[in-house]
Design goal:
122 residues; Hypothetical Protein Tm1070, Chain: A; eight-stranded antiparallel β-sheet; 0% helix
């Protein structure tokens, strides 16, 4: 199997504004998770902030031999992810997975899309 149990995304920010059709063009952060294992991945996601305590874990699952994209905008428990505030995240999985981070910034009509592989832990 490929992947790691721990991944970090040191950069996170959901713009408060968006342009274009909802929900496709809503500004967002996403973590894409690939699970090549023959068992479901149980994941805990924790958010870290500049000036307050961490929030989490957000509980996520990815079925065996599947991929799922999780929009941070849609996470609501233990609390909604704030817009307009810097954050970072750490993802911990019970089986090895691969993670990628994507941001859509649609504050202007000329949209910006950023994507990068998350940092694997040891």
């Amino acid at each position: 199997m490929i992947g790691n149990h721990t991944w970090s995304i040191p950069e996170g920010y959901i713009p408060e504004e968006s342009t274009g059709p909802v929900p496709e063009m809503t500004s967002h952060e996403t973590v894409c998770v690939l699970n090549t294992n023959d068992q479901e991945a149980t994941i805990e996601l924790t958010l870290y902030f500049t000036d307050r305590d961490p929030v989490g874990p957000y509980e996520l699952t990815v079925p065996a031999e599947r991929t799922r994209h999780f929009r941070f905008n849609d996470l609501d428990g233990p609390e909604a992810v704030p817009k307009g505030e810097d954050f970072a995240s750490v993802l911990e999985s019970d089986v090895p997975v691969v993670c990628q981070h994507t941001r859509l910034d649609s504050r202007q009509a000329e949209n910006a899309l950023l994507t990068t592989i998350a940092h694997p832990g040891e």
